[in-house]
Design a protein that fits this description.
The complex is a heterodimer of chains A (162) and B (487).
Chain A lengths: L2 E3 L6 H4 L9 H6 L9 H4 L5 E3 L12 H8 L4 E4 L4 H9 L4 E3 L13 E3 L4 E3 L5 E3 L5 H9 L2 H14 L2
Parallel strand pairs in A: 1-2, 2-3, 3-4
Antiparallel strand pairs in A: 5-6, 6-7
Chain B lengths: L20 H6 L14 H6 L4 H6 L4 H10 L9 E5 L2 E5 L4 H11 L9 E5 L8 H16 L5 E3 L4 H7 L8 E4 L13 E4 L2 H10 L1 E5 L3 E7 L8 H12 L8 E5 L1 H4 L3 H9 L8 E3 L4 H9 L19 E6 L6 E3 L7 E3 L10 E4 L1 H4 L2 H11 L9 E4 L4 H9 L2 H7 L2 E3 L19 E4 L15 E4 L2 H10 L5 H17 L1
Parallel strand pairs in B: 2-3, 2-5, 3-4, 5-6, 8-9, 8-11, 9-10, 14-15, 14-17, 15-16, 17-18
Antiparallel strand pairs in B: 1-7, 12-13
The chains are: A alpha/beta (162), B alpha/beta (487).
C-alpha cells in the first residue's frame, strides 16, 4: 500500500468540491483533493492509503467526501484525528479510518500495511505504529461495505424469520 | 464489496438478538462494552434513599437529553447508547436524491413521516439542468411519499425548521447537514449526519452515539453595541480551534449568553460545527419559551432541561463586556484576530447570507450600520435573507428598504454562495462574509480571499470599502448630535 501524505485540516470542500456536488460521485472523485495534490485523482491506485495530519474531514456533512475515497479505491485513511461527523460518515459508507497519533512519521510514497482490528500500522522498515482502538461494530460495518449493505442483509434476515 | 481490514478476517460471530426492529437494524452489536457497571443489589440496599436523583442532580444538559432519548434514568460519558429520534431533518442535497434510491434498494418504508421534515434550500432557485433535476427529485419524492412537513424555497433549513415550531426543548433530533447543531439553541439535542446514516434513521427511527463529555463556555458580562454572537463564536474558535469541541457537547452559558436573543443563540449553536462539537447547547429559558410561543410551537416545558450545579465538564471563561469585533482571516474560521488588530484590508464583496449570518437579527444589525448611508464605490453588498419569514419581517420593519437604499443587492433566501452551490463569487476577490466557513474555494472561487465577520462588521466594511469596526460607525450619529449641541 502506497501512502499519500496530506497536511492537517483537509476539509470536505477539498475532498468533494461544492461545485461538483450536483454532478454525482464520478465527477466529485475526479476533482478530489485537486487543490492540494492535482495528480491525486489520476495517479491513485486501488489499495493506496492517505496519511494525513490532524482534523481530517472538517466541514460539511456531505458523505461524498468519504465516498470519493471509496470510489477511488483507497484502503484507509490514517491520521491522528478526524472531524466527528466525517468519522461517522466514513464508516457508514465503508471507508476505514485509523486514528494514529504518530501518522506524521510515515513518508509520502512509503509502502505500509496495517491491521485494523489489532490497531497497528506497519512501516516499510518493519517498525510499527499503534492506533487508537475502533469499536468492533464500526469495523464490522466497514467490512460489510457500509451501513447500506448491512441494513439490506439485516432486513433480509428478518423477512426470512417467521 | 466491503473493505478488507487485514488478510485474515474473523467475521464477528457473536451478534446479539435485540428486541425491536430498530435495535436490530441500527444498534451496535456490542453496546454493553463501554457501559458503566449497573448498581449491584447490595449498592442499592446500602445507598442513600434517592441514589438516582442524587446522581441525576449532577448531570449535564446533554446527559439528560440523551438519557430521555434512550429511555434510561441516566447515562455516563463514553457509553455507547441507541436513541429514539424525535425529528429527522434533511434538504434537497443530502435528502431525497440520496435517500430515494437507497430506500428503493432496501424496499423499506419511512419509520414515521410525521417526524420527518424536508427543506428545499440548497439548489434553489434552480440555475441549470443539474440543479433542476435534483430539486425535481426532491419535489416528486415528497409528493409520492405524501410527506406532511415540506418547506420548498422558504429559506435555509436551520432557520425554517424552528420558525415553524418543529424544535422544542428536550427533543432529540438529527439533521442531514453539518450546521444541524443550530437546534441546540432551543435546548434540543441536535446533530448533523450524512445521507447513509440518515437512511438508517429513516428506516428505524433510531441512531447510536457515544455519550459526550460537556465543555462549558461561560460568558460573563454583556456584549457592547456593535458586537454580536458571531464575534463570541469567532473568539471561541480563535482560542480553542476547529477541534476545540472534540466532538463532545459544548454548552454556552453565563450572562453573556442568557442576554442574547433567540436568533443570536442560534448563531452560537450553529457554529458549534466549526468548533468541532457534536452539539452546541443553550439551556432553554423565558427567551426560548417566548420565541417558540410566537412561532407556533406547543407549550413547552423548560424546567428539566439544564445542567445541574456541579455537573462534570471542562469550563472555559470569557468576558462578553470587553469583547471587540472579531474577524477570521483566510482560509480558516479559527484564524481569528480582533478587528482592531487587522492591517488595512480592502474588500470587493460584502456578503450577508446563510443560516449563520442573515436571520432577522442579523439583518437588523446590518441595517443599524447602513441606514441613511451609502456603501463605498466599487463594493458589492449582497444580502440573502436566511428565510422568507425573516425577509418579510425585515420588510415590515423597513430594514429591507434601508439596505437597498444603502446599495445592497438582494439575493434569494437559500444557501446560495455560502456553499458555492448556487451563484458563486468572482475569482480573485476580497470578501467579507457573515457566513460560517472560509475554506479555500468554498464559495466557488479558489483564488478568493474570504474573511468572516459579524453582520455589523460586514455592513461597516461595505460602507468603508475595507474591513472596519462597526462600533465607530454606530458612535457617529451621537458624535454629530453632540457637535450640534455644542454649536
Amino acid at each position: 500500500m502506497r501512502a499519500w501524505r496530506l497536511p492537517a485540516d483537509v476539509d470536505t470542500d477539498q475532498l468533494a468540491p461544492g461545485a461538483t456536488m450536483k454532478h454525482g460521485i464520478e465527477v466529485s472523485a475526479r476533482h478530489c483533493l485537486e487543490a492540494l495534490r492535482p495528480e491525486f485523482a489520476r495517479d491513485v491506485r486501488r489499495g493506496d492509503v492517505i496519511v494525513a495530519g490532524a482534523r481530517f474531514g472538517i466541514g460539511s456533512s456531505r458523505e461524498q467526501a468519504a465516498s470519493v475515497l471509496v470510489h477511488l479505491g483507497l484502503a484507509a485513511v490514517i491520521a491522528p484525528s478526524y472531524s466527528g461527523l466525517y468519522f461517522r460518515n466514513a464508516f457508514n459508507v465503508g471507508l476505514l479510518l485509523l486514528k494514529c497519533p504518530q501518522a506524521a512519521l510515515i513518508d509520502d510514497g512509503e509502502a505500509i500495511t496495517f491491521d485494523a482490528r489489532a490497531g497497528v500500522v506497519k512501516r516499510a522498515d518493519g517498525s510499527t505504529l499503534a492506533c487508537h482502538p475502533i469499536p468492533g461494530f464500526l469495523l464490522d460495518m466497514v467490512e460489510a461495505g457500509g451501513l447500506l449493505p448491512q441494513l439490506k442483509s439485516r432486513l433480509a434476515n428478518r423477512q426470512e424469520k417467521p | 464489496m466491503g473493505q478488507t481490514l487485514v488478510q485474515n478476517v474473523n467475521p464477528n460471530p457473536n451478534s446479539i438478538a435485540p428486541s425491536t426492529l430498530a435495535q436490530e437494524l441500527i444498534a451496535p452489536s456490542t453496546p454493553t462494552q463501554k457501559l458503566i457497571a449497573p448498581a449491584t443489589p447490595a449498592q442499592e440496599l446500602i445507598a442513600p434513599a434517592t441514589p438516582a436523583q442524587e446522581l441525576i442532580a449532577h448531570a449535564t444538559l446533554a446527559q439528560k437529553l440523551i438519557a430521555r432519548a434512550c429511555g434510561r434514568s441516566q447515562v455516563a460519558p463514553g457509553e455507547i447508547v441507541t436513541c429514539r429520534v424525535d425529528l429527522a431533518m434533511f434538504h434537497d442535497s443530502s435528502g431525497p436524491r440520496r435517500l430515494q434510491p437507497m430506500l428503493a434498494e432496501l424496499g423499506a418504508p419511512i419509520w414515521d413521516k410525521d417526524k420527518v421534515v424536508l427543506v428545499i434550500d440548497h439548489y434553489v432557485p434552480e440555475v441549470d439542468d443539474e440543479s433542476r433535476r435534483i430539486v425535481r427529485i426532491a419535489r416528486d419524492w415528497a409528493a409520492e411519499q405524501r410527506l406532511p412537513h415540506v418547506y420548498d424555497s422558504q429559506g435555509i433549513c436551520h432557520v425554517v425548521v424552528p420558525q415553524h415550531g418543529h424544535l422544542r426543548p428536550g427533543m432529540f433530533c438529527v439533521g442531514g447537514d453539518s450546521h444541524s447543531p443550530t437546534g441546540g439553541a432551543f435546548g434540543a439535542y441536535m446533530f448533523g449526519i450524512g445521507a447513509t446514516e440518515m437512511l438508517g434513521v429513516v428506516v428505524s427511527g433510531e441512531i447510536w452515539l457515544e455519550v459526550p463529555q460537556t465543555i462549558f463556555m461561560q460568558w460573563s458580562g454583556r456584549l457592547v453595541d456593535g458586537v454580536s454572537a458571531k464575534d463570541m463564536m469567532l473568539a471561541m474558535l480563535g482560542r480553542h480551534g476547529m477541534d476545540g469541541g472534540e466532538y463532545q457537547a459544548v454548552e454556552f452559558c453565563g450572562e453573556g449568553v442568557t442576554a442574547l436573543s433567540m436568533q443570536e443563540r442560534m448563531t452560537l449553536a450553529n457554529m458549534s460545527a466549526e468548533l468541532g462539537a457534536m452539539v452546541g447547547l443553550v439551556a432553554p429559558d423565558q427567551t426560548t419559551r417566548a420565541w417558540l410561543a410566537a412561532h407556533g410551537a406547543p407549550e413547552v416545558e423548560i424546567e428539566p432541561w439544564h445542567s445541574d450545579a456541579g455537573a462534570p465538564g471542562a469550563r472555559h471563561a470569557f468576558d462578553a463586556s470587553t469583547l471587540a469585533p472579531q474577524v477570521a482571516l483566510p482560509h480558516s474560521p479559527a484564524n481569528v484576530c480582533g478587528v482592531d488588530q487587522l492591517p488595512a484590508t480592502r474588500i470587493d464583496i460584502a456578503y450577508i447570507g446563510a443560516c449563520t449570518g442573515a436571520k432577522l437579527d442579523d439583518l437588523r444589525a446590518a441595517a443599524r450600520v447602513l441606514a441613511g448611508r451609502r456603501i463605498a464605490a466599487g463594493v458589492q453588498l449582497l444580502v440573502a435573507p436566511a428565510s422568507l419569514r425573516d425577509a418579510a419581517d425585515a420588510q415590515r420593519e423597513g430594514i429591507m428598504a434601508q439596505l437597498i437604499a444603502a446599495g445592497a443587492t438582494l439575493l434569494p433566501s437559500s444557501c446560495g454562495a455560502c456553499a458555492g452551490y448556487g451563484s458563486s463569487i468572482a475569482e480573485g476577490s476580497n470578501v467579507i462574509s457573515s457566513t460560517a466557513r472560509n475554506f479555500k474555494g468554498r464559495m466557488g472561487a479558489a483564488t478568493a480571499m474570504v474573511y468572516l465577520g459579524s453582520p455589523y462588521t460586514v455592513a461597516a466594511s461595505a460602507l468603508r470599502g475595507a474591513i472596519s469596526d462597526a462600533r465607530e460607525i454606530l458612535a457617529e450619529p451621537t458624535r454629530r448630535a453632540a457637535q450640534k449641541g455644542q454649536a
